[in-house]
Specification:
The protein has about 425 residues and is α+β, with helices and mostly antiparallel strands. It has two domains: about 240 residues, FAD/NAD(P)-binding domain (3-Layer(bba) Sandwich); about 160 residues, Orthogonal Bundle (Helicase, Ruva Protein, domain 3).
Length: about 425
């Protein structure tokens, strides 16, 4: 065999897989179809790169829901602390923000990408840029790997080509085709951590308005409690919410987006928004009544701006059929109930999402049932390994998905 290990894809998983394999003395080749490594790292987090989350291994696992337990061995090999130590050792200090997100202190994703490339280049790993994989085939004792200009043989093959999110970075789903051709099952890929769209004019006119704490639920009904595909509990999240020119975004929206993109008819769904989640309905009603009594001559929009941004207050009053300059003391009981309902469960009809083009990760991919979590090796094809976003693993926003990619890549490199 020409090579001990060939790794395909120089993203977060591939960089660490190739580095670790080479550090262990394996003759390693890293193929990357782009002309530089870590393209997705460079554009992530608004070019800041949210490396991981300030939590323990259990916290990372919980962020992936039912599939999180697949990560036990990978995180045992490279948990959040070890990952940060690795980045720090390359001369890149990091910082923890209030949300627990960990970024390079410089706020430059390029520092992270360059650090990982430096470590890779200190090994004897050969890096071939601008060379995409076309196809591969099993042969006795390994694989033949074909690129536009060459064919090579290798004992072990590691596929770390990512999913379909941000296709401009090179993640165009190539790995899914190869995995399927060789017999692997794919869980249907859908966009995740993606902004959602609506045709509601009043929502889009609020573009730029941010609310730091909103509770949202995805529902098939416009009224709470609503329903969602027979589940007892609606998919819900709480966090920062942003109105945009196309609809809605912000961490809380991104975290529920997979429920929308995975639905058979996303345009039939509603987002039920609680804009004052720190108060119960009864507490908020009492506060409203008190404010309307004490400020009876004050405009209702001004009273509502105690709890929500003024622009949103104006919009909700219009939705309730109430003039924004109506005095608080003149509001009827039924009008007050309408306002309260919109504050605590405002339905926003959805039209869909911004798709893979704006998705931060892909939900779905190579079925975890067909990959050994102890070493990332295929259970169907000996010597073939998968790591990173190509796997059916997607977690919450906040660095969890990069941690998964780094950890599974590291474990693959430890195992080949």
């Amino acid at each position: 065999m020409t090579w001990d290990v060939i790794v395909v894809g120089a993203g977060p998983a591939g960089l660490l897989a190739a580095t670790r394999a080479a550090e262990r003395g394996r003759k390693t080749l890293l193929l990357e179809k782009n002309n530089k490594v870590g393209v997705k790292i460079l554009i992530s987090g608004g070019t800041r790169c949210n490396i991981t989350q300030a939590t323990d291994r259990r916290g990372i696992i919980e962020a992936f829901g039912r599939n999180g337990r697949f990560l036990h061995s990978a995180l045992a090999a490279l948990g959040p602390e070890e990952l940060i130590a690795l980045i720090n050792a390359e001369g890149v200090p990091t910082k923890i923000e209030e949300t627990g997100k960990i970024f390079p202190a410089s706020d430059k994703a390029s520092d992270v990408a360059h650090a990982l490339e430096r470590r890779l280049r200190r090994t004897k790993c050969e890096l071939s840029l601008g060379e995409p994989l076309v196809r591969f085939e099993p042969i006795e004792g390994g694989f033949t790997v074909h690129t536009p200009g060459a064919s090579r043989s290798t004992r072990k093959l590691v596929i770390t080509t990512g999913g379909q999110s941000f296709p401009g970075s090179g993640t165009t789903g190539d790995g899914y085709v190869w995995a399927r051709e060789i017999g692997h099952t794919l869980v249907h890929p859908i966009p995740a951590l993606v902004p959602l769209t609506t045709d509601e004019t009043w929502v889009r006119e609020l573009k730029g308005v941010t609310i730091p704490d909103v509770m949202i639920k995805v529902s098939e009904c416009a009224e709470a409690p609503g329903k969602f595909s027979g589940q007892k509990r609606l998919p819900n999240e709480r966090g920062s919410f942003l109105f945009t020119h196309f609809g809605i975004s912000g961490p809380v929206v991104l975290n529920v987006s997979r429920w929308v993109t995975g639905h058979v008819n996303p345009s039939s769904l509603f987002l039920l928004c609680d804009f004052v989640p720190h108060k119960t309905q009864q507490e908020l009603e009492e506060l409203l009544q008190s404010a309307m009594k004490e400020e009876s001559r004050k405009q209702m929009a001004g009273i509502l701006s105690i709890f929500i941004p003024r622009k949103l207050a104006d919009a909700l009053l219009i939705q309730a059929g109430i003039a924004s300059d109506q005095k608080g003391g003149n509001l009827s009981r039924s009008q007050r109930k309408s306002v309260l309902a919109l504050l605590k469960s405002c339905p926003i009809p959805l039209s869909g999402s911004m798709g893979f083009r704006k998705a931060e990760v892909t939900s779905g991919g190579v079925s975890l049932k067909e990959v050994d979590s102890r070493d990332m090796q295929s259970k169907l094809v000996p010597g073939l390994y998968f790591a990173g976003e190509i796997l059916d693993l997607d977690g919450l926003i906040g660095g969890y998905n990069f941690q998964s990619a780094f950890a599974t890549g590291w474990l693959a490199g430890e195992s080949v």
